Amino acid sequence: MAKKNQFETDVIHAGYKPSDHLGSLVPPIFQTSSYTFPSAEEGERRFAGESNGHIYSRLGNPTVTALEERMAVLEEGGAALAFASGMGAVSATLFHLTNTGDHILCSDGIYGCTFGLLQLMKKKYDIDHDLIVMDSEETVRAAIRDNTKVIYIETPINPTMKLVDLEMIVSIAKERGIRVVVDNTFCSPYLQRPLSLGCDYVVHSATKYIGGHGDVVAGIVVGADKEEIAEMGVTMRKDIGGIMSPLDAWLLLRGLKTLAVRLDRHCENAEKIADKLKAHPKVGRMLYPGDPDFPQYELAKRQMKLPGGMISFEVKGSKEDAQAILNRVKLIRLAVSLGDTETLIQHPATMTHSVVPEGEREKMGISDTLIRMSVGLEAWEDIWEDLKQALDGI
């Protein structure tokens, strides 16, 4: 048996052999739409699925394949599919696993566009869903219906940072033959690998920590079962479209090489900023899995390698006070997204989760004074100096 490499090695080397590409140290960008066949017979074999050669880049591309193979290794899965956006990966996975009349059980508090997708699935395709607090076996079991086909989880949840105990969910789901899908965007495979805990699918907005530099929009799904991923590739990607471009795949392969060292710094900076925020008189509730007072601190230590680079906090005051802080920052960038080298700050209630009705936002714990921050790679002292002057000014 071949020696298994450490994560920090696989993130650089997995899925690519220079000897297969004229010795090129870096994976080439195969910027082509079509591929020539050496013979008519070989073309027939490829279309019949009897040969693995390439046909057309909507079906597959060598640069994209290199990324997929690397992500499958990093997430400890069977295979991966790359999509043009994170929502492309989420929608393909949920539509692949459900049919009209089915039910999806979701963790309370999910990304605004995922919430919008669930509403669309209910309205147009009669695929129902429930959003629940998954804090106990009893709660989860009580919410499962006979037609529940998927349990969909964000952990940590965006933007409230709540965690879901994945081992608990898997134990319940396996009893009922329900598939477990985890949005692992906030952690990346460096901090959390849900498939190793028994989950069936992992989805990523690869725009975030996977890319890490704010220059690509992309999504990835990794499945435990290689054959199921292959089927999804035919139905949800080939026929509907939405494959990632070769350039985007190349940018992600480049970004992945520094994932481990970047996240170490993200987490180190976030811990320091969280300590400062917790002591500031203008800050009320602070939501950060690495805080010993965080309600699920012990679960975070068990389930995640490190607490992550995301912090949410509530301002003592009004919505206008929260917005004033965003308007006062100078070094910190007022922008959505996360996982970039730059520190980013935003107001979920009026930005990423504005599509969610106010009543639902309140149930999720998304108040008008909640601010979400993606802590970047700058010197933490500079990040705090900017954030402190913004807080002091309200």
TrEMBL record:
Keywords: Lyase, Pyridoxal phosphate. GO terms for biological process: methionine biosynthetic process; transsulfuration. The modification N6-(pyridoxal phosphate)lysine is found at K208. The keyword Lyase applies. Its cofactor is pyridoxal 5'-phosphate. InterPro entries: Cys/Met-Metab_PyrdxlP-dep_enz, Cys_met_metab_PP, L-Met_gamma_lys, PyrdxlP-dep_Trfase, PyrdxlP-dep_Trfase_major, PyrdxlP-dep_Trfase_small. Its EC number is 4.4.1.11, 4.4.1.2. GO terms for molecular function: homocysteine desulfhydrase activity; methionine gamma-lyase activity; pyridoxal phosphate binding. PROSITE patterns: CYS_MET_METAB_PP. Belongs to the trans-sulfuration enzymes family. L-methionine gamma-lyase subfamily. This is L-methionine gamma-lyase.
